[in-house]
Amino acid sequence: MNKKRIDHPQRKAGFVTGAYSDGVLLNGFLFVSGQASIDFTTSRFISGTIEEETRRTLNNIKAIVEASGASLEDIVKVSVHLADIRDFDKFNMTYSEYFGGIKPARTTVQSVLAEGVKIEIDCIAMAPSK
């Protein structure tokens, strides 16, 4: 098994939020852990509107996916956790800005998230073999 850790390129050395990798590349698939509105240069959560948190979260995912050599177009499955399902329409409009063509399969649920977090997203992408 040839498993490789993929980190957000701006992750500060020593920044640990939990016992997980940002992404794991295995057999042409990239598995991206749940991401939120984290500023990896400061190691801080950035609170904002659902649109702002969605953009920052998807930009974090984009950076991790691109660090593996893939792109947003290579994402095939997305799981979204919203703290408040009433934010769905605003989230969905912002999310749509990131995915054109054949959109990834997606599940969206309401979940209890960490204090102040409005959204968490994880995904699976096809990634080039290295």
Shape: globular
Q: Let me know the CATH homologous superfamily.
A: RutC-like
Total helical elements? 2
Largest β sheet strand count, sense and barrel closure: 6 strands, mixed
Q: Report Rg.
A: 14 Å
Number of strands: 8
CATH topology, which one? 60s Ribosomal Protein L30, Chain: A
Strand order of the largest sheet: 1-2-3-8-6-7
| Relative helix content | 10-25%
- Helix and strand pattern: EEEEEHEHEE
CATH architecture title:
2-Layer Sandwich
Beta-strand percentage range: 25-35%
Structural domain tally: 1
- Uncertain regions spanning at least 5 consecutive residues: none
Q: Could you characterize the architecture of this molecule?
A:
With 130 residues, the protein is of the alpha+beta class. The protein has one domain: 60s Ribosomal Protein L30, Chain: A (2-Layer Sandwich). The protein has 2 helices and 8 strands; from the N terminus they run βββββαβαββ. It has helices at 50-67, 88-96, and strands spanning 3-6, 23-26, 29-35, 38-39, 44-45, 75-82, 105-110, 119-126. The strands form 2 sheets. Strands 1-2-3-8-6-7 form a 6-stranded mixed beta sheet, covered by helices on one side. The protein has a two-stranded antiparallel ribbon with strand order 4-5. Helix 1 crosses helix 2.
